[in-house]
Amino acid sequence: MPVQLQHSGYSAEKLQSLTESLPCREAQASTLLALMGEPDQYSYPSIFIYGHRASGKSYVTLRVLKELELPHAAVSCVECVSPGLLFEQVLLSLFGHTAASSLPRCPSLSDFVRLYKQLCSQNPAKQTRYIVLDRAELLRDMEVNLLPGFLRLQELVDDNVTVILLSEIVWDKFRPNTGLFEPLLLHFPDYTKAELQKILARDSHPSYPQELYSFYINILLGVFYSVCRDLRELRHLAALNFPKFCEPLENGEAKESDTHKLWRNIEPHLKKAMQTVYLREISSVQWEQQQEMMEKEAMAPKGLSAYTHVELPYYSKFLLIAAYLASYNPARTDRRFFLKHHGKMKKTNFLKKHEKTSNHLLGPKPFPLDRLLAIFYSVVDSRVAPTASVFSQISSLVTLQLLTLVGHDDQLDSPKYKCAVSLDFICAISRTVSFDIVRYLYDFL
Amino acid sequence: TPRYATPSIPSRTQPARTPGNVLEEARARLHVSSVPESLPCREQEFQDIYSFVESKIIDGTGGCMYISGVPGTGKTATVHEVIRSLQQAAEQDEIPQFRFIEINGMKMTDPHQAYVQILQKLSDQKATPDHAAALLEKRFSNPAPKKETTVLLVDELDLLWTRKQNVMYNLFDWPTRRHARLVVLTIANTMDLPERIMINRVASRLGLTRMSFQPYSFKQLQQIITSRLNRVKAFEEDALQLVSRKVAALSGDARRCLDICRRATEICEHDASDKNTTGLVNMSHVMAALDEMFSSSYITAISCASVQEQLFLRAVITEFRRLGLEEATFQQVFLQHQALCRVEGLQPLSVSEGLAVCQRLGSSRLLLLEPSRLDVLLRVRLNVSQDDVLYALKTD
């Protein structure tokens, strides 16, 4: 039985319903309530709440404010591309429609404070007003005075107002160099496995008993807990895979007590889900369709990452291959790979000490256009005239983001490029023109 | 709950009282805003400017003069004094009537506003900057009967600088017109301003009439204070000498000198309420005032800082010595800090607390920091010399 939230100034039944709606967050909710105090008391000017994604920060805060019917404004900073929108939303939800429309066109913080002061002198706060700013880390990128201003808002407007900031980032990264009013820090810890189990088991399917769903969640967490502790993600996966879990029961192959059989049925399925639907390789709609098709044993649809094959013109393929070779081979070795009658090179001289680490780990290196063309002519068997089309193919490879231009100092005079494709991609491309790229790569010598 | 944590100046509800005793009287006289009866120690400069402007007024021609000098040497006060005596002379019909206009570069939002202000003061007209420039151009280049000489004082000239310098050019070009009858007196802080920022076209118009105000020597400062006090006996001789010697050694700024004297009278008054003394400002009061105004606040701030903050500064210096550089990342300093904590027998801080300490020092400008979103990689530099920090840390 969860601990009953206790606080003077609020009715018991409200607190009761609040307790029921906040599973596993009683400690945080009661701290928050203690900080907020009674409705007519002054609260601390600013509270900063941080914790990982889906640890119930905004849910708990908004739930408390809504359930206790406190005047509040909940604004997500993602939506507010300019401070004006932020001010407008705050005034709109605290003072109603007419207040927000009286803001000037491009309001500054001082306009907001002036208007707020004017409005709260007309109807002074009988209860603490709350401004909840979600994703508060975006405030840092707006005007410099916005974050310090909001932290001191209670003092600036001389009204009973508290600003609650919600963020996934720790407070240390918020302080500007000029200092500010320090808020109270409140941390929401991650849910433990038992807590996740408890929360997920709350939303059971109506046609199946509670215990069965709880068992299902147990299996699900056994598979997914090591990679994912995000409540939202887990809930999504639970909803998605539950029909599959129930299949043997519907077919009559198993009874509800045959836990081992059910587990045997669902476990490989969940493992597959981790590689496909969890990585968003295939969408959840496709996944559901696939589950229906399972009986026919249809071919599994290819995921997003399987579509890496791109159709390119003949010379573009060779240009890309040449660019890849130029990016991942040291320029010193070009003579050995691409010249017919290179002088004799001993392997010991050939390998330098610092080049023993794989170039593929260090990433592509930039190369000049001349080198690209030299390798290109050596790689292509036929004679290719350096026509405009060859050069325009290079620049269109840049626009396709298969090559990138490095250092935008000069477009025409010896530009430098990098190759931005993976080894799998280039291997697929070279197979289509029957060119063995691995033989030409220094790393695989 | 902390409310009204921002420090602010209390607003005055009653008007300032008239001076009751000697010290208050002295304070009123020493105030920078009270106009003195005469300007001692600037007689030569006064005479030069006076004769320059007077000759131009009598001849009915125009000209420019550039006046420079470090702050607090009496440039603006002398020019105002000159104008006052010229206006007196004009009232007694010794010289022809003239008109005085003053603009200040600091009071303008934009250099082109100078035109608007000049036009408004000349003829009560309001116009846009471009229009005002055209009107002024017309006014100064066309002959008009019964035109009186205009004396224009341009204070803080360096703020009228624009990229094409057309405001300065016009200001210096108008006096050279045949019918302008305009005398322009310009004031700035630097002596080589015409050479440094003006293009040739402008500097040549300015001409060669330059005057530079030297900083006051201690004797001059003493004379200024004595003349200001004008037989109000509030200071001991030695005290006055100490103030003027100190100020002359540092900057020769008369305003600074007056401020110190006023502060010394306040300290004296405060002391007198405790125990009965002579009621005169003596050496100790002046010493206290000088200490307040000249001593570096950094050292006081460091010696008043918390234990962990002092330890952090010590860690910064240790790390600098180890690296042989004047810059280190927070990470490096923090390791030193933790080692120092163990040596001192204190509980080592967590990274968040360490960052908070560091950023508190940064916001009081004892350290220079990079933006805080770099986290442990932010680079730390000292804003004070290492010797100052060590000196402040030693005096417990």
Explain briefly what this protein structure is:
The complex is a heterodimer of chains A (about 450) and B (about 400). Chain A has about 450 residues and is of the alpha/beta class. Chain A is built from 20 helices and eight strands.
| Total strand segments of chain B | 8
Order of strands, widest sheet of chain A = 2-3-4-1-5
Number of helices of chain B: 17
What is the second-level CATH architecture of the largest domain in chain A? 3-Layer(aba) Sandwich
H/E topology pattern of chain A: HHEHEHHHEHHEEHHHHHHHHHEHHEEH
Q: Which blocks of ≥5 consecutive residues of chain B have pLDDT under 50?
A: none
How far apart are the termini of chain B? 33 Å
The percent range for strand residues of chain B is: 5-15%
Distance between the termini of chain A: 67 Å
So what's the oligomer here? Answer: heterodimer
Name of the level-1 CATH class of the largest domain in chain A: Alpha Beta
**Mind describing the biggest β-sheet of chain A?**
5 strands, parallel
Q: What is the helix/strand order of chain B? A: HHEHEHHEHEHHEHHHHHHEHHEEH
What would the principal axes of the Cα set say about the shape of chain B? globular
Report the major sheet of chain B: 5 strands, parallel
Number of domains of chain A: 3
Structural class given helices, strands, pairing of chain A?
alpha/beta
Fold and architecture overview:
Chain A: One of its GO terms (biological process) is DNA replication initiation. Chain A: Keywords: ATP-binding, DNA replication, Nucleotide-binding, Nucleus. Chain A: Residues 22-164 form the Orc1-like AAA ATPase domain. The complex is a heterodimer of chains A (445) and B (396). Chain A has a five-stranded parallel sheet, sandwiched between helices. In chain A, strands 6-8-7 form a three-stranded antiparallel sheet. Chain A has 445 residues and is an alpha/beta fold. The mean pLDDT of chain A is 85. Chain A has 20 helices and eight strands. Chain A is flat, with a radius of gyration of 31 Å. Chain A folds into three domains: 12-187, P-loop containing nucleotide triphosphate hydrolases (Rossmann fold); 193-291, no CATH class; 311-444, no CATH class. In chain A, helix 4 (83-95) packs parallel to helix 6 (109-122). With 396 residues, chain B is of the alpha/beta class. Helix content of chain B is 53%, strand content 10%. Chain B contains 17 helices and eight strands. Chain B has helices spanning 22-30, 43-59, 75-91, 113-123, 129-141, 166-173, 193-197, 200-206, 218-229, 237-250, 254-274, 283-294, 297-304, 307-323, 330-344, 351-363, 386-394, and strands at 63-69, 98-104, 149-155, 182-188, 210-213, 328-329, 367-369, 379-382. Chain B has a five-stranded parallel sheet, with helices on both faces. Chain B has a three-stranded antiparallel sheet with strand order 6-8-7. In chain B, helix 1 (22-30) packs antiparallel against helix 11, helix 9 packs across helix 10 (237-250) and helix 13 (297-304) crosses helix 17 (386-394). The longest helix of chain B is centred in the middle third of the chain and has 21 residues, at 254-274. Chain B is globular. The two termini of chain B are 33 Å apart. The model of chain B has no long low-confidence stretch (mean pLDDT 88). At the A-B interface, loops of A face helix 16 of B.
